[in-house]
Amino acid sequence: MTEHETEHDRDGAQVSTGTTVEPGDNAEAAIPELVIISGMSGAGRSTAAKCLEDLGWFVVDNLPPALIPTMVELGARSQGNVARIAVVVDVRGRQFFDALRESLADLEARGVTRRIVFLESSDDALVRRFESVRRPHPLQGDGRIVDGIAAERDLLRELRGDADLVIDTSSLNVHELRAKMDAQFAGDEEPELRATVMSFGFKYGLPVDADLVVDCRFIPNPHWVPELRPFTGLNEEVSGYVFSQPGAKEFLDRYTELLQLIAAGYRREGKRYVTIAVGCTGGKHRSVAMSEKLAARLASEGVETVVVHRDMGRE
């Protein structure tokens, strides 16, 4: 994030909305929709929560995990006044963090639909943000900022694995993060599955928020064709060259079939968001062309799809 935040406001549970919960004695409303926002300190949890608040969600910051089922129960008794609840869970409440899994199991037993949004960022980006605001990491103690980041990654590893949506904010500013949250939560009706297809270059590193990674380096590189080198995979001649190579079309066909199988499983498990990272050496030719074709195939299957070319233009 380029407009930095490290979310160290205070330790108590903080309700960050003007909506009032007024339980009715005999009222039985629908169980509220629940989103749990977590992730690395400095990765943008406050921005994500504020975005949901602006969309009309009832947002509770730093609520102890053991109280999440109680919050949902209050929402169900609010005569429809609190239909959507977002809870920010972070390491400021680490003494309660062990209760999170128990609370999630309790919610599942009650039939509560919950989604976990995890805000991720690279170590370098997090260090820059903490240094820019001259505040310590909440877990660094007497050590360095990087020590606190490492401790937090270890603490949150299991929760990250359970997340329905992982957003990497390493190169995002506040407005771009808000746009991503709006894209996922602003609609009145949730689609069955949303996919981000991201091209990238292996030489710049794997995308940390990828659910699936595709390697296109088995296809001959247009970089070594002088007349194609200046262009990208968005160029028709480059795309034509890529898909004229042995195995390229077959790979697209087979991987699309595999994604249909995976998507069906995601839907059964209630996972609504998937990021598919398509890589080549530099993220300029092969991965871009393959990402465009793959996204078009997914869209034709009814999957709402966004294409991002992470490294195109870096050379």
Automatic annotation (TrEMBL):
InterPro entries the UniProt entry points to: P-loop_NTPase (IPR027417), RapZ-like (IPR005337), RapZ-like_N (IPR053930), RapZ_C (IPR053931)
Stored Pfam families: PapZ_C, RapZ-like_N
Positions annotated to bind GTP: D90, V91, R92, G93
Domain spans labelled RapZ C-terminal: 195-312
Location of the RapZ-like N-terminal domain: 33-188
Keyword GTP-binding attributed: yes
Listed name of the protein: RNase adapter RapZ
Organism: Streptomyces polychromogenes
